[in-house]
Amino acid sequence: MRNRIGGLMAMVVLIVPLKGIAAPSLQQNNQSLQDVKALTAEQLVVAVLTRNPGLQGLTAAAKAANYRIEPAGALDDPMLTYAGAPKTVGGPRGFQERVELSQSLPWPGKLGLREDAARARAEGAKQSLADGRLALMAAAKSLFAEWAYIHRTLQIKHAHRDLLAELRRVAETRYAAGRARQQDVLQADVEAALIDTGIVTHQRRQREVQAMINGLLNRPPQSRLPPPAPLPTPAEPPSLLALQKAALEEHPELRRIQARIDEARARHGLAEKDYFPDFKLSAGYNSLWDDADKRWTVGLSINLPFDLSGKRSATRNATLTDVMRYRWQLTDREAQLLAQLEQGRAQVQETRDIMAINRQRLLPLAEESLNAAVADYRAGQGSFLAVIDAERQQLRTEDNLARTHADYLRALATLEQTAGRLLANDSSHSTQINQAPTDTVGQRLEQE
Length: 448
Hints:
This protein is an alpha+beta fold. The protein contains twelve helices and six strands. The chain has one domain: Outer membrane efflux proteins (OEP), CATH 1.20.1600. The strands form two sheets. Strands 1-2-4-5 form a four-stranded antiparallel sheet, with no helix packed on it. A two-stranded antiparallel ribbon has the order 3-6. The longest helix is centred in the C-terminal third of the chain and has 68 residues.
């Protein structure tokens, strides 16, 4: 459990960034959750996507990259040059001066390639934003799963704490009647103290998870959070083929790498065209010439793209190597995603199956075992230690069921992040697992 908390803390530290970007105020964030009576995973995800400053920063970066597309394909500013001859002041011809207006013109196709590179960078920033949204959604759902588990396990432990108090009263009654040993009463006290220790530990973990969720929400760590709504009923995940198809077509990380390939191709095209000269057109007036017919001038300048130092060849080879590098990176990431999808789907199925075994088989058996142990103890045919063992087993079974349900939601969130899309889940049917497992035993004890 501590490792899970540590992993979630590391995730939040990586995701929650500096808060210099304009974001909703802490007071507004607090007020918007006051009316929520039972927090769902979907509500938490929406709140995180709305308030997280890191996502706002990625949004601003995507907008900035989009704004840079048009300037990348524009011509350089025209240049106005002015020069004067100081010693001609007061001369017979007056002050002599020279004025020139020039405009640089790159080789045809260069501007389009620069714009293509900027457009590819903008697409990469857009996909980084989408990838950031996926990461935040997975983090929010994982934290919600932990939030729900902690609330449920505290309910279970308090219920068993009450059950032990009733068992202790039964043991005291039987001890007073000479039908039981004092050790039975002491054993109940020891077990109750152990449960109290678990309650204290989970209360501390509850504060940790609350602080991490508030960190994603850009709120003070101690801000109140609504209790969790029942977790959705586990459903069969999509087929592996459907998940792989969706990931290869839609995953923003793959699209971001493809955008890098497009940018590298555009830069390689620019490197190819760098072997051709650029132009500069100019027109001016020079009054230094005695002949008035020579004072107006027009001109054309070009650079001489000799590759004597090999710099153009090096640049071209580097850009071509970048294209190959990103292609291999794309191939490698596709293979990793396919493997992660196989692993993630298997984990979702595993937690779903384990949850069904706990709910349908182990939990009823644990309850029957506890009922039988209590009945034997009341009839003088069983030991109080057998009752305590049965109570421990039921506590472990209930806690494992709650833990597995939370693990299912966490595994599903990870699978969604790997697939690059939300997965259909029947959230309309929620279940509160094992709401009052000890009621039957408690009622029987009260009747004694």
